[in-house]
């Protein structure tokens, strides 16, 4: 590989005015395709085989109208309305509420198969009790004796706003504040005509928001939630911060200003290319909204890091090679080989997300892998052409104080060399200290609690967050995560169906965590029924998830007795299912990625113990990262986060995949230089010191750039971006500075020659990829010998 990349590096350097226009054409073509084909991003948390899918299947078969209402992909919205003064039943507020409902019934994007009703008016139209319902029925039957129809069972789905809802249906009103408090909050559920979230445009959101604003202008408090109110997060500010910090870091790393801009160029090109390809992919499949955030995170950071590694090596080769072209070839052949395999570890880790079997994680992993792939391509193909284009001006003007201590100069004593000598003198102490620090930071990880982002995790000034808080104040937090129990009675004898539903309802009502519970609403064919359950706690709470688990556990006994089956769905149930699947996937995913990365590192280092210690060190850095993330975002330590929440469910999987890839990057960047010195004949301790001297500044600069790019996302108001950015930045910090630059070098000194041991039989069968450039040096020596012989024969 080193020879191939060496030849390419020389070609790209020499034919720069061919390579650069080709890259420009690629970027234009990808951008044009994205502009013509891109569709909106969309989120779907449905997964094959989730327990909640059983309820959906029952509803689709027997109650299709309800199935569409409770589908997580349905485009719905909730207008949460409050009376700032008085109650909603006051004349002024009722007039404003009637006007809002009327405007919704006129809105083209609203599904008018069922009219939108004023929830307060619906409340006043309900009979106050079962006796009142019987009287109304008798009056409607007329004076004919003996023909009065039986008293109808109140319909607790259509009539859920009855003031006497607890007596009729076993719960409090679901859309108007309960009867023991003033009616100051109401909810209007609206179904829109757009078939999926991907079909919702900004114009649709503005139309829906205009109705809410008219209600506000009339004196009501109106907030919106649901799919119609969701917007896609913006990442531009975080990226600009990352680029700014990266520029400063690279000026320090190179000791020159012009050279610092070259990795920035490759970073921008890499991210733009990957982003355009991901946008184009939205025309073919569903792409989650967080995919471009993750891709921009990894693409920008990796593109800059890989270019930084190659430019640093190019700076060194300029001193020892005969020409800049030769220096570019050697830099791409050696550092470029390391970049290719470092990038492969990232790609493997991210593509490994597909083994979890969750569609949105698979899409995010593919997006991140695309970004990593373009980072490698830009560094190894665009970079040498840029080196040729800048020519002699690349490392000018020099910064005297920084350039004086060049890590590529073997005679210069840098801080990296000083620290490496400390590790070489006392490896046991540095090993113990780094392990203790990481272990202490890992302790809070035992309290890890997972959840998915809901209304309570939105920015405090957003309408979605305000709607969540209004509903909580009006109905309790459980109203934001109502459970839907769909019952299949097709195998239950008709004469036992009422008893079966009563038994199930009694079972559900007996749980402590239930706040409200409706009576059963039967399907038209009589073979199914539906309950609505409002828990006392929120969608992400452990108590609510326990309630779901207990309710599911009761099915076996009821099925044996009555032959009925049931499923539980709704946001809360789906969240519990997703959390369970993701938590169970962490260990298998880590095992698959670790094995794949071990094989790659085995090829790079031709050693058993170096890849093994690399993987074990990663486990320590991951544990520490989980610990501090739980401490700050879940426990609220140090007051850094005002609004604590469970950790986003997919954060651990994405964090493991991404940081593992980056950790192996740093391992390759630093330890390949140590192996290179060892292969040249130095003893293991001196090889560690010299390799550390050459590689420490690059790894430190790369890590700081990564931390800056990821940390910039903490400025986002979106909790998903904020927590993901923090966790990634912390993971990079712990792994780069404590594991790769302290723990691993300490182990290499203690292991001595055993660190580079590999069985002879394995050495023979493994392909020699030559990352350290041994074949490249042989090629150069043959070329020099031939050049000397040819003039002699003339």
Shape by Cα distribution: elongated
Which CATH architecture of the largest domain? Answer: Up-down Bundle
CATH topology of the largest domain: Multidrug efflux transporter AcrB transmembrane fold
What would CATH call the class of the largest domain?
A: Mainly Alpha
Poorly predicted regions: 125-181
Fraction of residues in H or I helices: 55-70%
Domains, number:
2
**Strand percentage:** 5-15%
Backbone CA Rg: 32 Å
What is the rounded distance between the termini?
35 Å
Derived from helix and strand composition plus strand pairing, the structural class reads alpha+beta
Q: What is the arithmetic mean of pLDDT?
A: 80
Largest sheet: 5 strands, antiparallel
> Can you count the helices?
28
The CATH homology group name of the largest domain: Multidrug efflux transporter AcrB transmembrane domain
Membrane topology: Multi-pass membrane protein
Main location: membrane
Keywords: Cell membrane, Membrane, Transmembrane, Transmembrane helix
Transmembrane segments: 268-284, 290-311, 332-360, 366-390, 428-450, 586-605, 612-633, 653-674, 695-715, 727-751
What does this structure look like?
The protein has 2 domains: 2-41 and 233-454 and 575-777, Up-down Bundle (Multidrug efflux transporter AcrB transmembrane fold), CATH 1.20.1640.10; 76-126 and 154-193 and 196-231, Alpha-Beta Plaits, CATH 3.30.70. The protein has helices at residues 2-14, 16-37, 53-62, 64-70, 91-106, 119-125, 130-141, 165-169, 202-217, 236-254, 258-281, 291-320, 324-351, 359-390, 400-403, 415-425, 427-442, 463-475, 497-509, 542-553, 555-562, 571-605, 609-634, 651-679, 684-712, 719-751, 760-765, 774-793, and strands at residues 76-82, 185-191, 221-225, 450-451, 483-488, 514-517, 521-522, 528-535, 565-569, 647-648. Helix 1 (2-14) crosses helix 13 (324-351), helix 5 (91-106) runs antiparallel to helix 9 and helix 10 packs antiparallel against helix 25. Strands 5, 6, 7, 8 and 9 form a 5-stranded antiparallel sheet that branches. The protein is built from 28 helices and 10 strands. It has 794 residues and is α+β, with helices and mostly antiparallel strands. The radius of gyration is 32 Å and the shape is elongated. It is 62% helix and 6% strand.
């Amino acid at each position: 590989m080193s020879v191939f990349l060496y030849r390419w590096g020389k070609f790209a350097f020499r034919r720069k005015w061919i390579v650069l226009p080709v890259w420009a054409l690629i970027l234009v073509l990808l951008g044009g395709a994205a502009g013509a084909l891109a569709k909106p991003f969309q989120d779907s948390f449905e997964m094959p085989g989730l327990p909640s899918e059983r309820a959906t299947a029952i509803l689709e078969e027997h109650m299709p109208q309800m199935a569409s209402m409770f589908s997580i992909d349905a485009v719905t919205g909730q207008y949460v309305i409050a009376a700032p003064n008085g109650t909603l039943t006051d004349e002024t507020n009722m007039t404003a509420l009637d006007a809002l409902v009327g405007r919704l019934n006129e809105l083209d994007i609203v599904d008018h198969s069922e009219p939108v009703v004023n929830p307060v008016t619906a409340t006043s139209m309900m009979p106050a009790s079962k006796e009142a319902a019987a009287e109304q029925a008798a009056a409607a039957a007329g004076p004919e004796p003996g023909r009065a129809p039986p008293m109808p069972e109140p319909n607790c789905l259509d009539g859920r706003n009855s003031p006497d809802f607890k007596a009729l249906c076993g719960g409090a009103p679901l859309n108007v504040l309960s009867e023991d408090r003033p009616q100051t909050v109401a909810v209007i559920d609206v179904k829109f005509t757009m078939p999926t979230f991907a079909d919702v445009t900004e114009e649709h959101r503005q139309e829906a928001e205009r109705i809410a604003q008219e209600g506000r202008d009339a004196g009501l408090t109106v907030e919106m939630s649901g799919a119609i109110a969701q917007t896609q997060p913006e990442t531009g500010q975080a990226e600009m911060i990352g680029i700014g910090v990266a520029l400063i870091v690279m000026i320090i790393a190179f000791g020159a200003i012009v050279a610092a801009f070259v990795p920035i160029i490759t970073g921008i090109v890499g991210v733009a290319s990957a982003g355009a390809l991901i946008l184009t992919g939205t025309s073919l499949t569903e792409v989650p909204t967080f995919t471009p955030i993750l891709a921009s995170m990894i693409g920008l950071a990796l593109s800059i890091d890989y270019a930084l590694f190659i430019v640093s090596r190019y700076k060194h080769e300029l001193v020892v090679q005969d020409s800049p072209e030769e220096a570019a070839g050697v830099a791409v052949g050696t550092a470029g080989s390391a970049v290719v395999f470092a990038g492969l570890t990232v790609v493997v880790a991210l593509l490994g997300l597909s083994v979890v079997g969750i569609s949105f994680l698979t899409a995010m992993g593919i997006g991140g892998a695309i970004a990593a792939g373009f980072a490698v391509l830009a560094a190894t193909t665009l970079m040498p052409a840029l080196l040729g284009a800048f020519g002699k001006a690349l490392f000018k003007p020099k910064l005297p104080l920084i350039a004086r201590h060049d890590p590529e100069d073997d005679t210069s004593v840098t801080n990296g060399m000083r620290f490496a000598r400390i590790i070489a003198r006392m490896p046991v102490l540095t090993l113990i200290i780094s392990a203790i620090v990481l272990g202490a930071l890992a302790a809070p990880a035992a309290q890890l609690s997972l959840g998915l982002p809901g209304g309570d995790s939105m920015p405090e000034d957003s309408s979605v967050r305000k709607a969540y808080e209004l509903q909580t104040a009006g109905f309790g937090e459980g109203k934001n995560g109502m459970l839907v129990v769909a019952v299949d009675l097709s195998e239950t004898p008709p004469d036992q169906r009422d008893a079966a539903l009563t038994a199930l309802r009694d079972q559900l009502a007996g749980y402590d965590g239930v706040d409200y519970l409706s009576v059963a609403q039967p399907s038209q064919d009589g073979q199914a029924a539906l309950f609505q359950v409002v828990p006392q706690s929120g969608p992400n709470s452990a108590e609510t998830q326990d309630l779901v688990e207990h309710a599911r556990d009761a099915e076996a006994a009821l099925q044996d007795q009555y032959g009925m089956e049931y499923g539980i769905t709704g946001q809360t149930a789906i969240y519990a299912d997703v959390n369970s699947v993701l938590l169970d996937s962490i260990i298998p995913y880590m095992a698959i990625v670790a094995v794949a990365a071990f094989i790659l590192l085995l090829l790079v280092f031709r050693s058993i113990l170096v890849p093994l210690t690399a993987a074990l060190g990663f486990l320590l850095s991951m544990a520490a990262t989980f610990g501090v993330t739980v401490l700050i975002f879940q426990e609220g330590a140090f007051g850094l986060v005002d609004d604590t929440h469970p950790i986003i469910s997919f954060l651990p999987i994405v964090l493991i995949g991404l940081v593992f890839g980056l950790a192996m990057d740093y391992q390759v960047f630093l330890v390949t230089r140590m192996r290179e010195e060892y292969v040249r004949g130095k003893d293991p301790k001196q090889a560690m010191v010299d390799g550390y001297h050459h590689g420490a500044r690059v790894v430190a600069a790369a890590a700081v750039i990564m931390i800056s790019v990821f940390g910039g996302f903490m400025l986002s108001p979106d909790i998903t971006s904020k927590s993901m950015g923090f966790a990634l930045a912390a993971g990079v910090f712990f792994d780069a500075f404590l594991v790769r630059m302290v723990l691993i070098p300490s182990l290499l000194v203690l292991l001595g020659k055993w660190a580079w041991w590999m069985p002879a039989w394995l050495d023979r069968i493994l392909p020699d990829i030559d990352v350290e450039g041994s074949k490249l040096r042989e090629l150069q020596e043959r070329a020099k010998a031939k050049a000397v012989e040819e003039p002699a024969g003339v």
